[in-house]
Amino acid sequence: MSSGLPAITGDIDHARAVYVFPEVLKPWRPTILAYSASFVSTVMGFPMDTVKTRMQTHKEFSSYWDCVRKTYSHEGIRGFYRGIWAPLVSTSLSKSLGVSIFTFFKPKTYQLLYGDSVGTHPLLRNIPVCFISGSMAGGGVSLFACPFEFTKVYSQILKLVQRQHLIDTHDPKKRLTKTPSTLQIIKIIIRNEGYMGLYSGYKYHFLRDSLSSGFYFSIYELGKHSLNKLFFDSPSHLSVLIAGGLSGVLSWTLIFPVDTAKALIQKEVVTKILRQQEGLDPLPKKQNKVLKFPKLERNMYRGLGISVTRSFLVNMIFFGVYEFSMAHIA
Question: Residue 276: which domain range?
């Protein structure tokens, strides 16, 4: 019975194992290793994610360097890491859960599409299998990840929204130095918007994660196997790094307008909450077509450059660490 190419990585070579999990943890080995790899890559790439989100939601920055300079001037190094605790938990768990779901569904999807036939083009057959399995993984994980990502976005743009809409109220200095914790932000959102407020922008989050995850795994596996076949005689760490970086860059570029739409909707919710806290009237609801469907225009790609750089770095690190761990930890 054929199930196509193995999902992400094949079986471990026990001769190269540098550590062996206890028997009770072995079923969770891929999840634990994926979480660890994602934890490392998230810490490395988070400052660029902050710049990306601020560029998407605020037009006051003339360039990436201008955003970096002003963020550091007003908030110091901590400004680049605001909201990191939520993604350290959620992104790492989401990534590990997504890898686990993808790995679980891939052979089942192959059977559904091709049955027991082997076929003469396994690499081409692998593409739709990866896309469908990846989309299911991304869509499933989005239900868990959306509240955490919204709290991250809230933290990242909080001070910018305060300066833009609240600087004329009370004492600006006091207002701008007050930074709530992640837990406090969750409580604020629930208090003002209810529990469903944590899912602000969810339909765009779901669409983004489903499509991006489908592209992500398809591009990664196609890139890795193609590079191994064309340039290397055996599986290569270099092909893993290149394919990992390219999968992040291309998948993000394809779905970036959807991510911008999500960020703009969430910015409106943050602004509404802050104005409610100050006893101010809500701003008029923007009649922007982006709220109905992401329009492909220049503003929808603000922050793409830094996002592409971050995505290449983060996913190169993630797949490099994950594949190395899968090959050396039994």
Answer: 14-328
Among the listed residues 120, 136, 182, the one whose alpha carbon sits nearest the alpha carbon of residue 155? 182
Is residue 319 within 8 A of residue 220, CB to CB? The reply is yes
Residue 2 lies in a domain: no
Beta bridge partners of 329: 19
> Is 266 within the bounds of a domain?
yes
For residue 156, give the CATH number of its domain: 1.50.40.10
What's the pTM? 0.81
- Residue 226 in any domain: the answer is yes
DSSP at 11: -
Whether 3 is in a domain gets the answer no
Instruction: Calculate the alpha carbon distances from 136 to 104, 245, 246 in Å.
Output: 11, 22, 21
Q: What is the pLDDT along the chain (330 residues), one digit of tens a residue?
A: 456 666 676 556 666 777 778 888 888 888 888 889 999 998 888 898 888 888 877 778 888 889 899 889 888 888 888 878 877 877 888 888 898 899 889 999 999 998 877 667 888 889 999 999 999 999 999 999 999 889 988 988 888 887 776 544 455 554 545 678 888 999 999 999 999 999 999 999 999 999 999 999 999 999 998 888 887 766 688 899 999 999 999 998 888 889 888 988 998 899 888 888 877 777 666 644 444 544 545 566 777 778 888 889 999 999 999 988 888 887
Domain count, the chain: 1
